[in-house]
């Protein structure tokens, strides 16, 4: 570790200005808490820039302007090495002496360990696109490690929830207190319809169980080894509410949905006796009521836009429609052996879901009354799952689910075209359209459409690992909104609705 005396702290201001002038490629974050500030410096577009000569010039200038040249030069060299290597973030800690002695203050510079929780600066990026306009929405997402040995537990337990501007600016971690205890992690799940609350999953698993599952290639869901809760984060008040801890019915809760036209009602899926079940509950987590009876692995719960009906899938083999309270269930007539994740169109006219064989299923549409089934698109041999780890583990993939545009005009999905997995869309009455054309081996995944239906957020391996991107709704004008360090991946983007008055 190299320590820079406090008298040279001001030189960092010069460092910042020089780096901004010469390269324009730094994100600077300065916070102050408990008399300790972190000065984080992160190069955001190294892989797209060969301008190392500019960086060498910056290091030389810094050495020349300092009265204690060697110390500044050490800091410059560390930064330069970080930028060239591209995978060794540098952290500088500004420590203010509590006893007032200047010689106890200073800056400690050290390479960061990839085993540490991610710093916000590691996820900062400056967006780049031919399009001048940017969406005026924020996007929530999850980031975690993808290359650690030990399978799912080792990597997923590094998960954190983030939010970023639609232009790629303002990245920040949400509710870090959810991950402060050992073996806890967080996932971003969705936004409330008014955009005032973020829905997060707080997850804990014992490391012993994680090792057992990795060794045996199977899940072992028990209350002794798992705890998964749904937490609401009030974005303005920064208050957390654990909904599933209220009148608890399960140690493993899969997520919630907001009931259309009934602001005080939520949908919930929870593991009961080894099987997922759908429930309705009050907005404060009370009065949880089952929506189905009998045995069956049931999830994919979705309520119709008028709030009067629900749909869900059962045992991955059938799609059901029912009244809002779960009564009068009717099975959709579909002979395919695999049926998965139904979702109502915004106008309530259609239900989209995946149907076919497992790992060979395709977008299908059926009318809101369960009639008129038709295939909407073909995924061209794409297995329909996103591998989230560099070294696959059992069930380390995530289902790549289609999504409606909020205006109801398009269903977006992904499909294999040639040797790449591309973004596609199809209108309920029209043929599919291919939105991207990529190099062989590129994977696009998990598209989501902005609230005004003008923009598309999605994951892709088109450049540096698994990053998130934004494009116009027709797939043009693509630019990145994350630039995660090597060994990290970004998943499950969700657009934040704009807050009402």
Tags for this entry?
single chain; 501 residues; mainly beta; five-stranded antiparallel sheet; four-stranded antiparallel sheet; 35 strands; 40% strand; disordered N terminus
Description:
The chain has a five-stranded antiparallel beta sheet with strand order 1-5-4-3-2, covered by helices on one side. It is about 10% helix and about 40% strand. The chain is built from five helices and 35 strands. It is globular and about 50 Å long. Residues about 1-115 and about 125-130 have low confidence and may be disordered. The protein is mainly beta and about 500 residues long.
Query: What spatial form do the alpha-carbon principal axes imply?
Result: globular
Radius of gyration, in Å, reads: 25 Å
- Helix/strand-derived class? mainly beta
Uncertain runs are 1-117, 124-130
How would a crystallographer describe the biggest sheet?
5 strands, antiparallel
Major sheet: arrangement of strands: 1-5-4-3-2
Give the count of helical stretches.
5
Distance between the termini: 51 Å
What's the overall average pLDDT, rounded? 81
Q: How much helix, percentage-wise, in residues?
A: 10-25%
How much strand?
Answer: 35-45%
